[in-house]
Design a protein that fits this description.
FAD binding; binds 2-acetamido-2-deoxy-beta-D-glucopyranose; FAD-bd_PCMH-like_sf; Uridine Diphospho-n-acetylenolpyruvylglucosamine Reductase, domain 3; 17 helices; alpha+beta; binds flavin-adenine dinucleotide; EC 1.5.99.12; eight-stranded antiparallel β-sheet; 3 domains; FAD; oxidoreductase; single chain; five-stranded antiparallel β-sheet; globular; disordered N terminus
Length: about 500
């Protein structure tokens, strides 16, 4: 990863810089402090300096921004090579045009000012638009609205050939589909047009506890089948495995009171693995008590159909924006305990519904049985028909599949053992014939990538050949590392 600055890369960066400076007149930061900020990632398992310098040194009088956006390559992916800090979010009637480098939190705060909001999110909002659209962008809204990539109308992309293209389902559609979920392989997203809808004001936020996996799964699937917003149901559905450790020291645990934690821990001690279904219903408080009555009655009715442990429904009522920004509160808490900037050997999988019981048995009850890692373990289902098959993102070929997020925190001493455990889980899935795909995939060898993309691989390669033939972009993903040799082999 040292110096990959070929003349083509230079000219690519140059056209990007020209493009962005012309359209925004904001500075590009190249000072050592800023560069070093971008040399590590949330995984904290690798470091890599942005290697390419812009073609011309910038005058030193350009002041740094008041706060640099935290870029968060999950795990082992070195960051984008230039630090481009600009500020562009423009709200229209039913869409927003936003710079690829913008953080979702800023998109949220800006759009709600206009009474509007995107409808599909990630759990954590301090991620860039370009970064999540290069993967998929998932959270508890995806069952109904699809991943974030399903909510994009148009993109501006600077391709690896240095072209600046506008693309959509109608225009340069091959690039549009390739870039969404494309792991940064075809171009740099400089603008995304994202669908907006009226923003709700509040969220009734609920957690329901289960002691058996079957009821938990059945209820989640029931809830994600409520697709019509006019029917009463959750607007957000997630869930997690709760083990001793994950209850108290977890960045999502600000929800429960100490009393609740004790009550749940007792249950956990009795039953071992317990499961927590998380849901929320959005509403407007403009109607006063009518709205809360509607919510209360709706939930009561919904609960009659669900099989959580009686007495184990927990409720919070928060603003829409604090609901969406809930993980940030957990971040602050963990930071205060010095538990945020630690190694994160995360593993994210999409597992087909038909194999979810085998997965529960083999992974949650066997491989993870010691309960001694910290960090949430997410489990929630999504509907395949909300994904667009033409996009680069890959999912298991089944109508319902589960997102499994092993979002564990480690220490310098135990990260290796967690990594080994992740490998054990992958081996178990491979050998046990579990139909699954990695989300936020990382592989070291092109054969693994080929297998990952499956029937999409040929298209992926031909798009690479068309839009980034020298493989200048996102080499850190280790998909196309020695471009000419590899591509000419095909
Ligand atoms: C704390 C945390 C929580 C997360 N939670 C979720 C979640 O709930 N749901 C979810 O779906 N994901 C989640 N993620 C994963 C996240 O979607 C990916 O890590 C994503 O890449 C983050 O984008 P970034 O801008 O922060 O990363 P960056 O480091 O900027 O980019 C990572 C990679 O994305 C590509 N990329 C970035 N910007 C662009 C661009 N403008 N154009 C083209 N390619 C680009 C490049 O390949 C780059 O190497 C989480 C990550 C973290 C660290
Ligand atoms: C289609 O893409 C081209 C090339 O980027 C662009 O010039 C044109 O404005 C786009 N057309 C529409 C309707 O978006
Ligand atoms: C956690 O440990 C207990 C024993 O302490 C065990 O019974 C339980 O199955 C474990 N939980 C999981 C999820 O494996
Ligand atoms: C968890 O406990 C087991 C058994 O004591 C041990 O082998 C493993 O290394 C521990 N893992 C972590 C992450 O501490």
């Amino acid at each position: 990863m040292a110096t990959t600055s070929s003349s083509l890369l230079q000219s690519l960066l140059f056209s990007l810089i020209i493009h962005i400076s012309l359209s925004t007149r904001l500075p590009i930061l190249t000072d050592p402090t800023t560069i070093s900020t971008f040399s590590t990632d949330f995984g904290h398992l690798v470091t890599s300096s942005p290697a390419a310098d812009p073609p011309h040194p910038l005058p030193s009088d350009q002041s740094p921004p008041s706060s640099s956006p935290p870029f968060h390559s999950a795990y082992r992916i070195p960051r984008v090579r230039v630090t481009v800090v600009v500020n562009r979010i423009r709200v229209f009637d039913d869409y927003v045009d936003v710079g690829g480098e913008q953080l979702w939190i800023d998109v949220l705060l800006e759009t709600v000012k206009h009474g509007l909001s995107p409808c599909s999110w990630t759990d954590y909002l301090y991620l860039t638009v370009g970064g999540t659209l290069s993967n998929a962008g998932i959270s508890g809204q995806a069952f109904r609205h699809g991943p974030q990539i399903s909510n994009v109308r148009e993109l501006d992309v600077v391709t690896g050939t240095g072209d600046i293209l506008t693309c959509s389902k109608k225009n340069n559609s091959d690039l549009f589909y390739a870039v969404l979920g494309g792991l940064g392989q075809f171009g740099i997203i400089t603008r995304a047009r994202i669908t907006l809808r009226p923003a709700p004001k509040r969220a009734r936020w609920v957690r329901l506890i289960y002691v058996d996996f079957e009821n938990f799964i059945k209820d989640q699937e029931k809830l994600i089948s409520i697709l019509e917003e006019d029917d009463f149901g959750f607007d957000y559905v997630e869930g997690s495995l709760m083990m001793d450790q994950s209850l108290s020291s977890n960045w999502r645990s600000s929800f429960f009171s100490m009393e609740d934690v004790n009550k749940i821990s007792e249950l956990g001690a009795k039953f071992g693995a317990i499961y927590c279904l998380e849901g929320s219903v959005y509403y407007d408080d403009g109607l006063g008590t009518a709205a809360t009555t509607w919510i209360d009655q709706g939930l009561e009715f919904l609960y009659q159909d669900l099989n959580f442990v009686p007495g184990f429904a927990f409720t919070n009522d928060v603003s829409y924006t604090s609901f969406l920004n809930r993980v940030y509160h957990g971040e602050l808490k963990l930071r205060s305990m010095n538990l945020w900037d630690v190694p994160h050997p995360w593993l994210n999988l999409f597992v087909a519904k038909s194999k979810i019981f085998e997965f529960n048995q083999g992974v949650f009850k066997e491989i993870l049985k010691y309960n001694n890692s910290t960090g949430p373990i997410l489990i929630y289902p999504m509907n395949k028909n909300k994904w667009d098959e033409r996009m680069s993102a890959v999912i298991p070929d089944e109508e319902i599949f589960y997102s499994i997020g092993l979002l564990r925190s480690a220490t310098i001493d135990n990260w290796k053992s967690l990594e080994n455990q992740n490998e054990e889980i992958l081996r178990f899935c491979e050998q046990g014939g579990i139909n699954f795909k990695q989300y936020l995939p990382h592989y070291g060898h092109v054969d693994d990538w080929k297998k990952h993309f499956g029937s999409k691989w040929d298209m992926f390669v031909s798009m690479k050949r068309k839009y980034d033939p020298k493989a200048l972009l996102s080499r850190g993903q280790l998909i196309f590392t020695s471009p000419l040799a590899q591509l000419s082999q095909e």
